[in-house]
Amino acid sequence: MSNTLKAALWMIGAILSFSSMAIAGRAVAFELDTFEIMMYRSFVGVIVVITVTFLAGTQNQITRRSLGLHLTRNAAHFAGQNLWFYALTLIPLAQVFALEFTSPLWVIVLSPLVLGERLTRMRLLAALIGFIGILIVARPGATPINAGLVTAALSAIGFAFSIMLTKRLTRTETITCILFYLTTMQAVFGIVFAGWDMDIALPSAHSVPWLILIGFAGLIAHFCLTSALTLAPATVVVPIDFARLPAIAVVGMLFYAEPLDIYVLIGAVLIFGGNYINILSELPSPNRKS
After folding, report:
1. Distance of alpha carbon 213 from alpha carbon 198, whole angstroms
2. Which of 13, 60, 102, 133 has its CA 20 to 30 A from that of 270?
3. Count of C-beta atoms within a 10 Å radius of residue 276
4. How much is the pTM?
């Protein structure tokens, strides 16, 4: 099996995890603000990562050589994730995900500068086809500009930088090291920002299971994403995540009575088409000599 196909399989796990996190995020948003959600999510993550690290005996993989890069990566992700959770409470799920998925355009444009990756014609074509599908689903202009649209769009920029910096970290750091700093640094960020007004809400019995799900889903999603990035370039991995859009649109229809119309179906076809072209272009040709 080629590394590109392995990366695609890891991204399926990320898609399922991110979708679960969106559902859980909506379930707790009625009593916790986004900083509190991120704080409790990170607490769960710290416990899980430290436990698994010591059970696996991989604590020696946690180094301090890339602290500055970890800090920058986690600050970008913390900002993007908070904006994303906030947008979930204001606009339909499919619209949040559609605007979030402008992040591949930022990755494609910036990865040659940040990561030194080549911008091939096929990668650009695949991303553009997928983005056209997203525009068909989101239909900019059909909905008045509001805080939900703005925060969802801004979250994409934070996620794009997070993805690119994660890719840089995979060159020198293990997944254990990346996830350790992901959870611990963002736990500190959460405490600082949730407690700035000296009023941190405690979760109710109803919210605790959802917070645990958010914590586990977030970790699994990042483990899958980081694993995929170790196998394939960011410009290959990120467009695969486009498949999350039609999946979450169906979830919105079934659980939140959010309409699923022909535009979502047309956009989904283009998104899958772009992903298929991208994966095919990265597969080794049977006629290509090694």
Report:
1. 26
2. 13
3. 12
4. 0.81
